[in-house]
């Protein structure tokens, strides 16, 4: 089925949507994005994604071409037009297309940002990966120093995932100065003696919207949380591990660099957090 997508104020069939070859998203990776999950036709944690988008834009001296209320309406309309019961909405804002290539930002009065949104249909709730658990490899951090901004510069993430697939694994965790920063497209956690351990926020990792929600729900459920650095060796000796992201929610991890965690099956804390997340996130869906 041909999707209806949104480009700069227009709803179009995907085959007719066009962006200039001079668009800075295309030429320089000068664009930010968000992915909001859809469950039962509703947007999960739109508020969180909206807030992070505003921050990413601010960090790059960009302004959204529409208001945040309009953005919500565009999300909703695309979900409806494409009959999305379960899946996601991808949103990208680039600095726009000047009439040539240059490193300097163009005058924002002259060049308007490019806004693109499209939907993806996917089974999210019933996931074979969540039932089975992921095998991850560690990989030396190779991305830029502002990983707190959600930009479309994702080659590092793609390379890390390909490296994992090459050795029969599912995903990769980045390691910098001996400590795990985050997963290729998710935040990383270990569990030891019932305590949930995850790296504290900084420029070195993305402040996951799912991370914030999961930590809040875990605290409400009286679970212990410690935000600190951890190594791959500590992770391999942990009772369990998991990652979080908007589209995978809570994804159990059963093996790190060939070492099985616990009995090699998804752990109880990860499973419980996935259940709590799905239940609580649905209550706030819009
Ligand atoms: N870290 C990175 C590098 C990511 O790409 C993502 C999601 O795409 C996350 C963390 C998780 O963020 P969120 O929970 O907002 O999806």
UniProtKB/TrEMBL annotation:
Q: List, alphabetically, the CDD domains matched.
A: D-AAT_like (cd01558)
Q: Which SUPFAM superfamilies match?
A: D-aminoacid aminotransferase-like PLP-dependent enzymes
Any single GO molecular-function term of the entry would be: L-valine-2-oxoglutarate transaminase activity
Tell me the domain of life.
Answer: Bacteria
The protein's UniProt keywords, in alphabetical order, are: Amino-acid biosynthesis, Aminotransferase, Branched-chain amino acid biosynthesis, Pyridoxal phosphate, Transferase
- Tell me its cofactors: pyridoxal 5'-phosphate
One short Pfam name that applies is Aminotran_4
Q: Which residues cross the membrane?
A: none
Function of this protein?
Acts on leucine, isoleucine and valine.
Q: What protein name is recorded for this chain? A: Probable branched-chain-amino-acid aminotransferase
Q: Which organism is it from?
A: Celeribacter ethanolicus
């Amino acid at each position: 089925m041909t999707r209806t997508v949104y480009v700069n104020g227009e709803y179009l069939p995907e085959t007719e949507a066009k962006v200039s070859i001079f668009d800075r998203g295309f030429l320089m990776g000068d664009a930010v994005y968000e992915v909001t999950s859809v469950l039962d036709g509703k947007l999960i944690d739109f508020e969180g994604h909206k807030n992070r988008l505003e921050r990413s834009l601010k960090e790059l001296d960009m302004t959204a071409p529409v208001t945040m209320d309009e953005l919500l309406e565009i999300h909703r309309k695309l979900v409806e037009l494409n009959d999305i019961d379960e899946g996601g909405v991808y949103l990208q804002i680039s600095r726009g297309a000047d009439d040539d290539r240059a490193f300097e930002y163009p005058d924002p009065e002259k060049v308007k940002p490019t806004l693109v949104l499209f939907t993806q249909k996917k089974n999210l709730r019933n996931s074979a990966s969540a039932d089975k658990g992921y095998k991850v490899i560690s990989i030396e951090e190779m991305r830029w120093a502002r990983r707190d901004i959600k930009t479309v510069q994702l080659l590092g993430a793609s390379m890390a995932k390909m490296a994992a697939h090459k050795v029969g694994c599912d995903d990769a965790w980045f390691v910098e100065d001996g400590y795990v920063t985050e997963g290729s497209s998710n935040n990383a956690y270990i569990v030891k003696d019932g305590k949930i351990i995850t790296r504290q926020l900084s420029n070195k990792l993305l402040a996951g919207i799912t991370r914030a929600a999961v930590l809040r729900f875990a605290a409400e459920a009286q679970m212990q949380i410690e935000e600190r650095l951890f190594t791959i060796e500590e992770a391999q000796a942990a009772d369990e591990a998991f990652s979080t992201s908007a589209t995978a929610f809570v994804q159990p991890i059963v093996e790190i660099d060939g070492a099985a965690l616990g009995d090699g099956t998804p752990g109880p804390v990860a499973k419980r957090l996935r259940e709590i997340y799905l239940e609580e996130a649905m209550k706030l869906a819009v």
